[in-house]
Design a protein that fits this description.
The chain has helices at 36-50, 75-85, 97-105, 129-136, 155-159, 170-183, 203-210, 222-229, 244-256, 297-308, 329-340, 350-358, 372-379, 385-391; strands spanning 15-19, 54-58, 89-91, 112-114, 141-144, 166-168, 190-194, 215-218, 260-262, 266-270, 279-283, 291-295, 312-316, 344-347, 367-368. The chain is of the alpha/beta class. The mean pLDDT is 96. 35% of the residues lie in helices and 16% in strands. It is elongated and about 70 Å long. The chain folds into 2 domains: 6-172, Phosphoglycerate kinase, N-terminal domain (Rossmann fold, 3-Layer(aba) Sandwich), CATH 3.40.50; 187-379, Rossmann fold, CATH 3.40.50. Strands 3-4-2-1-5-6 form a 6-stranded parallel β-sheet. A 6-stranded parallel β-sheet has the order 9-8-7-13-14-15, with helices on both faces. Strands 11-10-12 form a 3-stranded antiparallel β-sheet. It starts with 14 loop residues before the first strand and ends with a helix.
Length: 392
């Protein structure tokens, strides 16, 4: 995960294409409701400007189907970027061709150039190298600062890096450094916390982490497939029957490697999946007709005790249906335990990040990842195409 740094790139007097991740949430009127990703890019942009470079920004927004989608134009992002930086932002309605080239050539000193949504081109998500060459023609150098798309072999992510001298931006470097600290050189004990609905989404993560961690805390819906594999009755809880054999093998591997797998010993259960469903707490087996929707008080205490002893913690996935108050206590407890931990803490994945922000704990986490899919692939032990392109 070591790549060329921005400091090593000779940006002075150069047009610097910067792939950022400005895929921000918007309300029905198009107003940006969370500008975290825009703010995260600012140190890289200011560093380029301070050294005399001209930042030319490329991003996607939403899921346009390879054509122009008026609701996915980047103009609102440009307006917010101007507010945050106090700089002129030249918003261009094209991302390749003569219109874009003219906008770049005529940009005033100290300005930022924001090109149009790269996914308006059908070839972007296919990694089309002709499209990549059209992007590359607008710049002299390339900086990848979009960790959230680094797991995609797209034209504006990997294609440009194969054509121009390239480096990682400050955000990208920060992300890679954080996961390097977790996966390559952690202080021990290393504790991983995994949650979410389906074990099939994260079994590769489990298997990779078993070789690395000292303890693995499993919560959320995925915990019930693990419990069933251990012979515990799970009632109507979410269980992926087709994954039971794989989970049994993972549990056996963990036991052989003396890795502690922490599963919930008690549960907040309901008879239907609804925010207003009557609940009760049960220990051990769950009766037929009832489903586990959060970890119980004893499980919260146990998880917090394991986390408190850790020197490195990585968390991906909630412990229950935390969007509903009746089933949020488990995720709140884990979030507080991670925030209280004296070790190095990393939180990744949209729901986990949303949880620590919702509970006002984000400032007490050492690193909050901006890329759910990319962070999950790193935890799986996979190489990210964007990183590999920078190293080529």
């Amino acid at each position: 995960m070591t790549v060329r740094s921005l400091a090593a790139l000779p940006v002075s007097g150069k047009r610097v294409l910067v792939r950022v991740d400005f895929n921000v949430p918007q309300d029905d009127a198009g107003a940006i409701t969370d500008d975290t990703r825009i703010r995260a890019s600012l140190p890289t942009l200011e560093a380029i400007l301070a050294r005399g470079g001209v930042p030319i920004l490329l991003s996607h927004l939403g899921r346009p189907k390879g054509g122009v989608d008026e609701s996915a134009r980047l103009a609102p992002v440009g307006a917010r970027l101007a507010e945050l930086t106090g700089r002129k932002v030249v918003v261009v309605k094209e991302s390749i061709g003569p219109v874009a080239a003219q906008a770049v050539a005529s940009a005033p000193a100290g300005a930022l150039v924001l090109l149009e949504n790269v996914r308006f081109h059908d070839g972007e998500t296919k990694g089309d190298m002709q499209l990549a060459a059209a992007f590359a023609a607008l710049g002299d150098l390339f900086v990848l600062d979009a960790f959230g798309t680094a797991h995609r072999d797209h034209s504006s992510v990997c294609g440009i890096a194969r054509l121009l001298p390239s480096a990682a931006g400050l955000l990208m470097d920060k992300e890679l450094s954080a996961f390097r600290r977790v996966l390559a050189s952690p202080e021990r004990p290393l504790v991983a916390i995994l949650g979410g609905a389906k074990v099939s989404d994260k079994l590769k993560v489990v298997d990779n982490l078993i070789d690395r961690v000292d303890a693995l805390i499993v919560g959320g819906g995925m915990a019930y497939t693990f419990l069933r594999a251990r012979g515990v009755a799970t009632g109507s809880s979410l269980v992926q029957e087709d994954m039971l054999g794989s989970v049994e093998k993972s549990l056996a591997r963990a036991a052989a490697r003396k890795v502690e797998i922490v599963l919930p010993s008690d549960h907040v259960v309901a008879q239907k999946f609804a925010a207003d469903a009557p609940t009760r707490t049960v220990v051990g087996a769950i009766d037929a007709g009832w489903m586990g929707l959060d970890i119980g008080p004893a499980a919260r205490t146990q998880a917090a005790a394991v986390i408190a002893k850790a020197r490195t913690v990585v968390w991906n996935g909630p412990m229950g249906v935390f969007e509903w108050p009746a089933f949020a206590a488990g995720t709140v407890a884990v979030a507080k335990a991670v925030a209280d931990c004296a070790g190095y803490t990393v939180v990744g994945g949209g729901d986990s990040v949303a949880a620590v922000e919702q509970f006002g704990l984000a400032s007490r986490i050492d690193h909050i990842s901006t890329g759910g899919g990319a962070s999950l692939e790193l935890l799986e032990g996979r190489k990210l195409p964007g990183v590999e392109a920078l190293r080529a």
